[in-house]
Every structure is written in C-alpha cells, then in structure tokens.
Amino acid sequence: MGCSWFACLSGEAREVDGEIAAIDNVKIFKYREIRQATDDFSAENKIGEGGFGSVYKGRLKDGKLAAIKVLSAESRQGVKEFLTEINVISKIQHENLVELYGCCVEGIHRILVYNFLENNSLDKTLLAGGYTRSGIQFDWSSRANICVGVAKGLAFLHEEVRPHIIHRDIKASNILLDRYLSPKISDFGLARLMPPNMTHVSTRVAGTIGYLAPEYAVRGQLTRKADIYSFGVLLMEIVSGRSNKNTRLPTEYQYLLERAWDLYERNELVDLVDSGLNGIFDAEEACRYLKIGLLCTQDSPKLRPSMSTVVKFLTGEKGIDYKKISRPGLISDFMDLKVRGPVATKAEQVNRQNYTNPSSSNASSRDHSNAYSSGASSANAGNTFSSTI
After folding, report:
1. Does residue 231 share a domain with residue 169?
2. DSSP conformational letter for 328
3. Which UniProt keywords apply (predicted)?
4. How many domains does the chain have?
5. Whether 103 and 126 share a structural domain
6. Nearest to 376 by CA among 223, 243, 220, 208
7. What tens digit of pLDDT does each residue of 317-349 get?
8. Which of 141, 168, 112, 155 is nearest to 281 (CA)?
9. What pLDDT, on a 0 to 100 scale, did the predictor assign at position 206?
10. Tell me, what CATH number does 73's domain have?
11. Contacts of 3 (CB under 8 A, 6+ apart)
12. Considering only CA atoms, which of 310, 311, 307, 309 is closest in space to residue 157?
C-alpha cells in the first residue's frame, strides 16, 4: 500500500535532514531568521515563482541581501534537486558561480539562501529587449565579458573541480548578472558529477529544448560536451540578442543555429549580430564569437573544444582553425526526431506534453522574476525537457 501524504512527507523530511547533516560546510538558517529577512515572506519581496515554489528578496542579520528560494511542499521532484544543489554548490566557489549562503531544513521547510544579484538573468534582460525593456545597456564590451565569464565558470566546473561537474541546464535564464553585469551560473539542481576514468554517465535526459545536445537527447549518454553544446547556443544568443527559437520570424529565420550556419556558409555571419548595437561593435571579434559558437555546437561531440580552450578562443589567446568548423547538430533535426516522429514512444508523448516554444510569446508576457529557479521546476517549466530514454 502507498503511504499517507503525511507519512511520505515525514519520511522525505528525514531523508533530507540526514543528507544535510552529512554536509559540514553549509550554514543552517533558522526558519524564524528567514521569516524576518523576508518580512514574513511579504508579497513586496517576492521576486520569482515557479513549480518549485517561490523566491524572495531578503536582508540577512549581517546586512547582506539574499535571494531566498522556498521549496514548495508539493514539489516532490524539487526535493531531489534541492539536495543535489546543496551537495554541488556548497563545495565550490568561483567568481562566475552563484554563492550559496546556506539553507533551512526546519520541519517541512526546505529553503536555499543565495547571494542576491541585482540585474536578473540574461533571458529577462538581454533576450527580452535589452535596454528598451530592462534599462540595461548591453554594449559589445558587456556581452564579450559575459561570454568569457560564463566560459570561465564552466571551465572551472568541467576541469578544475574533482570530480568534474556537468551542469546539464546551461541557458540564458540560468545566467544571472550582478550590478556590474558580471555573469554567475545558477541552478545546479540538475547537475551531475563525472566520476574519474569514465567517458560518460548514462542518465535520464534533462535540460531545455533548444540547448540540448542531440547525442545526449537521443541516447541519454551525458558528457561535458553536452554543456559545451549548450554554451555554444547561449554564445550565439548573447551576440545576436535573440533566443534560440522565435516562431514570430519567417520560417527560415526561426532557429538561431540554422540561421547561423546558413550565414556562415555564405560568409555573412556579421548579419547575425544584434542590430540593437547600432553598428557599434568589433565586427571581427563578433564574428569570431559566432564561429566559436558553431565550433561548440558541431554535430560530432568529439569535434567540440574543451571549455578551457573556448576561453582561450574568446580572449584571443589561441587561434582558431576555421577549417575545422562543421555542420552543427541542428534543433530542427532534434525536433523531427523527438516531436514529429511518426511513431510516438512513451517518452516522446511526454515530450509533446512538456514542450512549448521558448520564444513564441511576447517578451512582455514572460515571467520577470529572478532566475534562481530549479531545472525542471522553473518558471519556464514548459521549456524544460525531462524524460527517460
């Protein structure tokens, strides 16, 4: 027989308490401290909401501003992501990763406390209209710094941390910006550790359509190359100022990767650079960034460069052999396989239910919350792909 709701919740609480107790470098906040920091979770302090629960802006006892992520008691998948996030992010620190101040695990309350980042996420600012909507001026220098910062953060996760960490959900909504527009990678709820001497980890497919590496989406074999593919898509979004898919555009322009490859073959990549820059940018550097994006999204994972190499490409420390750029793994190929296939497997039926067009709605109708949400439970949950294959 199945357990009662209360008994299941109590068992889950004991599991979480046990795992938290085993982590010795996480500050544990009292629930009353969190209530005081958020003015008893006042509506004025709420900055985000999604399937996982809500995010509040708060001021801690030491005066620090914090983003306080409150897990909903009904979010069963969120409990696993809650533990994963604590286990992963509590052990590492880097200037391009969000900082976990601590957590609260009192009674049924599950709360994460992060540093507060003033300028929201890339999808709510740059990709939602930049200066005209967010008030932030993303000039070329700012975009280049964001690209390099994210690349350095990923290189740290992939190559310097032991065991290596694969993020699994690199996307614009998971890149937060501080007051100086320095990027911070957030949301480690889907992260996986890469054990030493293993070529890949076989796992359920999780991530966001448009950023998913085709080989991972098809076979469920996860490597660091999947993150590198996602970064390549993100890189193109930052340079072009548009989301990876936009159904409001003519068919031939809807998919960013397809458009980039078409322009690359015609030697017209500069046309993809955001017109919002008003021509004030280094055309050679912008095109180099777009070509790096193509290198990162090549159909064969073996051809994608490591993130430390990507950092060197972006900063100009290492030259690029452009002859090595091959056709990317295109999102339209993936969509044909997973959504439009003539025979729908159980997994594909799940995909149909979970899929929405990432950029098909007007920016003004999007959730303008801060992006501390967790993977498949985020405010953009319709965009997130999670299935067993």
Report:
1. yes
2. B
3. ATP-binding, Kinase, Nucleotide-binding, Serine/threonine-protein kinase, Transferase
4. 2
5. no
6. 208
7. 999 998 889 999 975 665 554 433 333 333 333
8. 141
9. 80
10. 3.30.200.20
11. 11
12. 307
What is the C-alpha to C-alpha distance for residues 92 and 156, in angstroms, rounded to an integer?
Answer: 10
Its domain, for residue 37, covers 5-115
Q: Catalytic residue numbers?
A: 169
Q: Are 142 and 177 in contact (CB under 8 A)?
A: no
Show which of 48, 82, 115 is a domain's final residue: 115
Per the annotation, binding residues for ATP are: 69
Residues 91 and 128 in one domain: no
CA distances from 50 to 203, 370, 376 (A): 25, 11, 10
pLDDT-derived band at 18 (thresholds 50, 70, 90) equals low
Same structural domain, 81 and 179: no
What is the separation of C-alpha 52 from the centre of its chain, rounded to a whole number of angstroms? 16
First to last CA, the chain: 28
Spatial distance between the Cα atoms of 312 and 386, rounded to a whole number of angstroms: 33
| CA-wise closest residue to 255 among 271, 242, 269, 238 | 242
* Distance between CA atoms of residues 157 and 342, nearest Å: 39
Rounded CA-CA distance 240/22 in Å is 45
